[in-house]
Design goal:
It is built from nine helices and six strands. It is mainly alpha-helical. The chain has a domain at 143-201. Residues 189-204 have low confidence and may be disordered.
Length: 204
Amino acid sequence: MIWFGSNANLDHLAVTGVTICLDQATIHRSDCVRNLGVLLDSSLSMRQHMAKIASTCFFHLRRLRKLRRVLDLENRKRLVCAFILTRDYCNAVLANLPDSALSPLQRVLHAAARFVAAIGPRDHITPTLISLHWLPVRQRITYKLCTMMHSVFYGQAPSYISEIVTPVTHLPGRAHLRSAKKRRLQHSMCTLWIRSAFVLGVWN
């Protein structure tokens, strides 16, 4: 059981000691829950989720570094894609977060690129990312959202995603606006529920 909201609103809730009893089970309030591998905290800052991902990725990187001398470039790239880059499979839930919140994932991406390219910590990382065709974390999130909206626009997305997105042309009084001519979409639910739908959908 968890309440979602801003820190200010959560402070006003009298939730201390609140429990739910179902038959013989007692459910206590939690500040963080796991849903299909994604950690959701009460304020949806996603900091615990990203800290967990970063910790796991660096653990695998330390193991892979022991094999660096026996692996060529292509095999290093395959292993990083399998053990590191796949960890952000639900990165759409990180949309609109500040750069400071995304920095742990960006550090993981830089460390993985340095391992694959066998470059030092003082070498510039941007040329390496370009040569590997790896997008920065924020651009990876944007790409995932664009892919999802493309599926919504062409009717290939699941119903629980399509139902919360409405073309501006279908909204009363807005069909003749410039936003309608640009084929823009409008979501009708708050950020919390959109993020929850993305998580439950396990978009890969």
